[in-house]
Input
Amino acid sequence: MSGTETVVQHVRVAVVGSGFGGLGAAVRLRREGVTDFVVLERAGSVGGTWRDNSYPGCACDVPSHLYSFSFAPNPDWPRTFSGQPEIRAYLERIADRFQLRPHLRFQHEVLGAHWDAATARWELDTSQGRYTADVMVAACGPLSDPSVPDLPGLADFPGAVFHSARWDHDYDLTGKRVAVVGTGASAIQIVPKIQPQVEQLVLLQRTPPWIMPRMDRDITSAERRLYRAVPAAQRALRAALWSVRESQVGAFVKRPGLLKAAQALAKRNIDKHIKDPALRAKLTPDYRFGCKRVLLSNTYYPALAQPNVDVVASGLREVRGSTVVAADGTEHEVDAIVFGTGFHVTDMPIGSRITGAAGRTLGEEWKDGMAALRGTTVSGFPNLLFVIGPNTGLGNSSMVLMIESQLNYLADYLRRLDTSGAAALDVTPEAQQRWNAEVQRRMARTVWNTGGCRSWYLDGNGNNTVLWPGTTAHFRRETRSVDLAEYQLVRIPATTPATV
Output
């Protein structure tokens, strides 16, 4: 072997990402008897978004006993809504319990992947070498790449600048003047935590969210003992939590008018904590409850009512030196800027790194909007399966439920691939179009599309390519098995013998 040759490792399956989706895929592969796989992770540990988001107050807004794998219940959750450290620790235990460590490849960022039609394999270039795989599972997740607005003057800001998902723990905010940009799920957790320690907090808000009280409490030691001794008790609780959330779906997707009662409760939540009429007006949304993600907090409004907080009901327009300038012309001198501005969800950066059978990248294929059959497979990209793909997001329940449904589909996909005799399966354009036309038809009357807001659920064309317009039970039925009628069978081209 010459010193310039590159060693290429071939695996049956290459999984990209080691959050809930990637680890879940790894567990399912082992359970299906597939051990020839790797999990490519760009960071140095597992956890995905629960590793990256370590900002003050980071916690889940789905009950702990529902936000965990059905095959790996945790009887020792400390709170009804668990924090980031507990969820990350849970994922580390998953890696150990299911013997996933030998499959994990840390510091392996996927720089590019392309489909080689001659071999019917995916070729993946990573920061640590090249792999080939019969099947690629993209479990990067939509909340993996932070979105920071390109603002005039930001590069010249002399203070600290960081995104909530890249929190700078070495920077002490004590006594500092801090601007928080955004009012999403991260910001409403960050603000109450840092407000008591900073000198001044400026919240730059484009649109206020609807916020409901957070019914959070410690889970008692007696409850934990019960769950350990009687696993059926924990399963019953999980089923009850699931049922409640399933029953809410109809209001979001079919009858938004039913959300008026919930909106009235959210309005009373504002009135209870915010006595200043001017501030109350700033914090009261002008769109229907549920149109944007409904948030949970008991501490956000009380923090905003403190004298060292200034709510600017206008987005950040530019930065001049150490001054942040809002769209309404309001100016504030600050020492640090914290962006809670979300992620690249409808324009996932990995899309530009994956090249399909026609030589087009996934980003090019999705330039008019993301689309996939059953949120999992994409026409022109054989043997590529997404975990948390287009239109698989939820507005009110646990994404782990959707992940497990897609893992069912993955398992059946591999079984059908083996029995078909084909090297790969490729979704027919017609099947993908029919599926997505039906999804968008059902999406048309949802509160997300009709509620009068502009949310991160919508792409640049105004299409909702993020959420699933139905129950998790419905999605599980739709992904229970692979219908080969929706796929073309791809075979390795026959080679012509060389002539002498």
